[in-house]
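[09:14] KT: can someone run the structure on this one? pasting the chain below
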Amino acid sequence: MTLSDVARKVGLPRATVRRALLTLVQLGYAEEDGRLFRLTPKVLSLAGAYLGASASPTVLQPLCDVLCVEYNETFSVAVLDGEDAVMIAYATPRRMYMEASGIGLRLPAYCSAVGRVLLAGLPPAAREAFLERLTPRAVTPRSVTSKPALRRILAQVEADGYAIAEEEAEIGFCSLSVPVRRVGGQVAYALNTGMPVGRATVDQMRSRFLPRLLAESQTLQTQLF
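[09:31] RB: done, structure tokens below
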């Protein structure tokens, strides 16, 4: 990206962005090629430090791999980061290709199944503070953007213990998520499966996957501190 591209993307003055980019170049996280800036492989060390210190490589990723092989569907685990849900474990069958999919994929929390599970697990005051500062937009024509409606949805997710989002974060894609709690009971992760809408109805997804995801969530709780 050019300096101007980055400035537009982050909404900061060009001078501020230039100082930041030159700092990243100096530290080895980016490189400059004429008018263009690009990231270097060194940025992976930042993600590696987080993943290495979390339960992802030892517990969460192996679980996604096992479920993917067993069901021949995509499984993932996400955490809440600001207004997004971020995938930190991910496994998908070889037959499936999804653009920009995998570890590090970010989805708006308010309109995705993983995000709603994580938001529903927040303390009431934190959940309300999130909604107060949120400016929801329609990611797809089916995205719910009304704050009163989102409050009702999150309350229902909390009561049900799972979330289903059908084509709200991505056209043609439906996801089912359950919360994963730490030993103390705090919701820390969302365990998710997703597939094209033509592969199964919502009821079929619920009957086929929900009992297993809930069981795996209970098992994980004994391993997460």
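[09:33] KT: thanks! The chain has two domains: 3-39, 46-221.
[09:34] RB: yep, looked fine to me
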